[in-house]
Every structure is written in structure tokens, then in C-alpha cells.
Amino acid sequence: MTDQTPVAKATPTLPDAQTVTSVTHYTDRLFAFRCTRPQSLRFRSGEFVMIGLLGDNGKPLLRAYSIASPSWDEELEFYSIKVPDGPLTSRLQHIQPGDPIILRPKPVGTLVIDALLPGKRLWMLATGTGIAPFASLLRDPETWEKFEQVIVMHTCREAAELTYGRTLVEALPNDPLIGELVADKLLYYPTTTREPSAQMGRITDNMASGKVFADLGIPPLDPSIDRAMVCGSLAFNLDIKKVLEAAGLSEGANSAPAEYVVEKAFVD
Ligand code: A2P
Which pLDDT belongs to residue 267? Predict the structure, then answer.
């Protein structure tokens, strides 16, 4: 063997590897991507899995990500923030179609319809990337079969940050699978808090003040008919829980379904 002899590089084989199929950048802080789905993976819309990349030390660098695609989709979709010095997202934001990612096929989470008691109205309350699990639930026929009305409140600082959710919500009435079910059931209430737009304000404030009910022309929260799913920052989750509890709703879990459920949105 001479110095010129090419030496086969030891390419580490990723455990639980999947392949990225498409990437869409929405802002310099937000992007979505799709990847192949392990054949064995079954999940309930709204659940999350651990995904990531191989770290510099050769160990998997994994974070919890809500699956944004519905359970019937043959691929998986994820919606992510880009944090410049975030251990995972500083690298994940550069993935391209064809790249491998690691995906542990063990879905879990409480943001599932099974963790709610039957009801008439379902509120989906999200800040920032917290819209991801609702992107899954909104495309699942079960959501529309189980509720008479679905109200999506999504709040971001700036209008461009609403684009992923808005595009998805606006496409629902034309969806061949659920379009007809959605028709008269969907109410969408996007707001910004820092950039002026048609509708503004925090979800907590718009609920507590009664503004959202007045704007949509619907009755206030009633624990006998209203169910809520919450996904946002820790501060938002804590504050919206107070608003929901004040209206008489109590928190549910897989083991004890009740009127609302909460999950923290991915932030790193
Ligand atoms: P605000 O601009 O008034 O802080 P972030 O990017 O910080 O995660 O925030 C996403 C959105 O969630 C922003 O519109 C922000 O509003 C809102 N938000 C942040 N904290 C809370 C909270 N405790 N209650 C309600 N909304 C919140």
C-alpha cells in the first residue's frame, strides 16, 4: 500500500436512518422538511418522536419533534425553528433532500384526541412552532368526525411566521380527503403580536378579554362542550392554562381524558 492508495473511509451507519425528501424555508428562523417514514411506524396524529443527526462525537444528537404530517401520510413532515447556536438546529437547518436523519420510531405525547373527553368545539391554541402537531391533527379525518367546530388560534411575533400554518389551513377546504368535512367547521384566528396586521394580540389576552368570541361570533368557553389542545412556549402554556381553568376546563392525559391537553413546543 502506497501513500496514494485510496483508503475506504469508515462512514458511520446511522441507527434508525431516514432520508430527507424535501425542505422548505419559510423565514430565516423557520423551516419545514419531509422525510421517508419507517414502515413499522404507527402513530396518533399529534404525537412526537425523537429526531436528529449524528453529533461531532459520533453520538446521536436528538430532540423531541411533533410529527406535523397526518397519520395516513406515507412520508413524515416536521416544522422547526432555526437557532443559530442551537446544538441541533444550527446543523439541521442545512439538511438537503437525500440527506440522512435519525428518527427513533417511538411516538408519544398527550396532544391526542384520545386524551380529551368527547365535546363539540375543539380549540387548537398554538404559538410559534407549536402549530406543528396541529398540522397533523388538522389533516386527520378523525378530528373532523369527532368535533362540530374546530377553532385554530395561532400567534407569532410577525406575519411571515404564520405562513406555514396559514398555507396549511387555507388548503384544507380543497383537500380531497377531508375538504367536505371541513367546510363549515373550521374557524381560523391567526394573530401577530409585534408586527401590525389585520388581527393582533396574544391568545391569552384575546380569550380572556372575550375578543376572539366577539370577532368570530361564537359563545364563550363552556366546559360541557369545549375541548382545547395547547402547544407553545412554556410561558404561554402556563398562562393559557390559567385562562382555560378559569373557564372551568381541566387538564387531561392519556390515562385520564378531560377537557384540555398541553404539550411544550420545540424551542432549542
Ligand atoms: P409577544 O410578542 O407579546 O411576546 P416567542 O417567539 O417568544 O416564542 O413567542 C411567540 C408568540 O407567543 C409571540 O407572539 C408572543 O407574544 C407569544 N407569547 C409569548 N409568551 C406568551 C405568554 N406567556 N402568553 C401568551 N402569549 C405569549
Answer: 66
- Report the b/e string of 199-232 with b at 16+ CB within 10 A: eeebbbbbbbeebbeeeeeeeebebeebbbbbbb
| pLDDT score recorded for residue 266 | 72
The percent of the chain in helix, strand and coil, each rounded to the nearest 5, is 25, 35, 40
pLDDT at 4: 47
CATH architecture, range 17-108:
Beta Barrel (2.40)
Please report which helix (H) or strand (E) contains residue 81, including its range. strand 75-81
Residues 79-104 have pLDDT tens digits of 999 999 999 999 999 999 999 999 99
Q: How far is the CA of 236 from the centre of ligand 1 (A)?
A: 6
CATH architecture of the domain 113-264 equals 3-Layer(aba) Sandwich (3.40)
Ligand 1, atom 12, lies closest to the CA of 127
The yes/no answer to whether this complex scores an ipTM above 0.90 is: yes
The pLDDT value recorded for residue 268 is 64
Ligand 1 nearest atom to the CA of residue 205, by list position: 25
Q: For the chain, which ranges sit under pLDDT 70?
A: 1-14, 267-268
Domain borders along the chain are 17-108, 113-264
Q: Would the CB of 235 count as within 6 Å of ligand 1?
A: yes
In the reported structure, the alpha carbon of residue 72 is separated from the centroid of ligand 1 by a whole-number distance in angstroms of 32
DSSP secondary structure letter of residue 114 = G
Choose the residue to mutate in 26, 27, 127 for probing ligand 1, maximizing ligand atoms within 8 Å of C-beta.
127
Do domains 17-108 and 113-264 share one topology? The answer is: no
Q: How far away, in angstroms, is 234 Cα from ligand 1 center?
A: 10
